[in-house]
Write a structure and sequence with these properties.
There is one protein chain. It is built from 25 helices and no strands. It is mainly α. The protein has one domain. Helix 12 packs across helix 13 and helix 13 packs parallel to helix 22. The mean pLDDT is about 85. Pfam families: DctM.
Length: about 475
């Protein structure tokens, strides 16, 4: 058995342990250190001090001390320390805790109920108005937070009971909430895009610019589906009565938009605009967003010590998870490549003589399947580094590939049986809402995601338009 075969076995063990439910970050570190000990094993280097002590007739304590020291003199431990230090000092990752804090503090600012009721009043004459308002609220709120579980849960507590009370079809209502809640991992400022950029070495700024139009396009496809289906099957979304909406003058509607929609939209646009137009780095813009989130919570009189403490705790916990995933992934990938695993996979894939389109389809199918049991963070930091070195052979731009991956990962939250959005929503739904109904409600949106990927492939200018316009063509 060659070292390359051992590396492939290392990858298979990782997949098996993930399916068994072991913590991914610590599994990566354990496998990296364990197999790395074998890969970097050098008895002469490790026990040189022990041999010298033995030759000089050292006592038992000295021999034991030098032997133990030699055991830990394997280069894998140096690699592990260096990888940890590299991750901690990575400037790109600095934006993650700041964006997370912005999301958690905005989540606790109690503006979602105002936002939903305002958008419902504004869109009351649109077919499926309550679903449209829910989708718009999900899109805006998901963009501000980037936390799928929080958005789906809050909208499940707020919008779903209102839609069910208005006699909306259960599948129609639950599907739009689950799909809308996932958009935050695609539309900037998205943490997924930061993680992908750090993994692939792409500029976060170009990544944000490239993802903006595809993200809005996917949200637009969702909106078209919601409205068209409400027109074709009006029994799914009955039109609201005056009692449901109430009477509002144009001035009242304008004031409602100004006090609920405008502040959050302004915060998002300010952060995104500062990044895209080069006014601030992503980390600096994230700091502005965190401060803006605090100001927004204070303006809505929702900034309490308890909420601030919860936001800081959740930010620290999530950031630690992402950082240790990066440390484990970097250690695992270094050992995997050192053993020849990356070259083995590269030779195997290139030997299949696939066209670029065939490779793209195969890669997206693999990512789609991985989305069933895994979170997007695990897919990005573990498996994307395997695909990235193969892209030059097929002439595929990592930026374009990353956008397709980000769109594809929407399905990670929508594809049964492990669709986390469905479980988030089921946890706060009335008892009569069945999990199978939620699954069926999400299925059309999975098809829309696939349609969006096809459109992006056929019209790549959707991805490149903004980056080329703002920063010039990258050569």
């Amino acid at each position: 058995m060659t070292d390359a075969h051992i590396a492939v076995g290392m990858l298979l063990i990782l997949i098996l342990t993930i399916f068994l439910g072991f913590p991914v970050a610590f599994t990566l570190m354990a496998l990296g250190v364990g197999f790395g000990y074998y890969a970097y094993f050098d008895a002469g280097r490790m026990w040189r001090g022990y041999d010298r002590a033995l030759e000089s007739g050292g006592d038992a304590f000295t021999l034991a001390q030098t032997w133990i020291g030699g055991f830990f003199n394997n280069r894998i431990f140096d690699l592990f320390v260096n990888q940890t230090y590299s991750v901690i000092q990575n400037d790109v990752l600095t934006a993650i805790p700041l964006f997370l804090f912005m999301g958690y503090i905005v989540e606790r600012a109690n503006i979602v109920d105002r936002l939903f009721s305002t958008l419902f009043s504004v869109t009351r004459r649109v077919p499926g108005s309550m679903a449209v308002a829910a989708l718009a609220t999900c899109t805006l709120f998901a963009t501000a937070t980037g936390i799928v579980g929080a958005v789906v849960t809050l909208m499940g507590l707020l919008a779903l009971p209102a839609m069910l009370k208005a006699k909306y079809d259960v599948r129609y209502a639950t599907g739009v909430i689950c799909a809308g809640g996932t958009l935050g991992i695609l539309i900037p400022p998205s943490i997924l895009l930061i993680v992908y950029a750090a993994t692939s070495g792409i500029s976060v700024v170009r990544m944000y610019a490239a993802a903006l139009l595809p993200g809005l396009a996917l949200a637009g496809f969702y909106l078209i589906y919601v409205v068209v289906r409400a027109i074709l099957q009006p029994q799914l979304a009955p039109r609201p009565t005056k009692e449901d909406v109430g009477e509002h003058t144009p001035v009242q509607l304008a004031w409602m938009m100004l006090t609920s929609f405008a502040p959050l939209a302004f915060l998002i646009l300010a952060v995104l605009g500062a990044i895209l137009f080069g006014l601030a780095t992503p980390s600096e813009a994230a700091a502005i967003g965190a401060l803006g989130g605090l100001a927004l919570a204070a303006a809505y009189r929702a900034l309490t010590w308890q909420r601030l403490k919860e936001s800081v705790y959740l930010t620290a916990r999530t950031t630690a998870m992402v950082c240790w995933l990066f440390v484990g992934s970097a250690t695992f990938a270094s050992v995997f490549a050192y053993l020849g695993g990356q070259q083995f996979i590269s030779d195997f894939v290139t030997g299949l003589d696939m066209s670029p389109l065939m490779f793209l389809i195969l890669a997206q199918i693999i990512i789609f399947i991985l989305g069933w049991p895994l979170e997007w963070t695990e897919i990005i930091v573990i498996f994307i580094p395997i695909f990235i070195p193969l892209l030059p052979h097929f002439g595929i731009d990592p930026l374009f590939f990353g956008i397709l991956v980000a769109i594809n990962l929407q399905t990670a939250f929508l594809s049964p049986p492990m669709a986390m959005s469905a479980y988030y929503l089921k946890g706060v739904s009335p008892p009569h809402v069945k999990l199978t109904d939620i699954f069926r409600g999400m299925m059309p949106y999975m098809l829309i995601v696939i349609l969006c990927m096809v459109v992006i492939y056929m019209f790549p200018s959707i991805v490149y338009m903004l980056p080329n316009l703002l920063y010039g063509v990258q050569r």
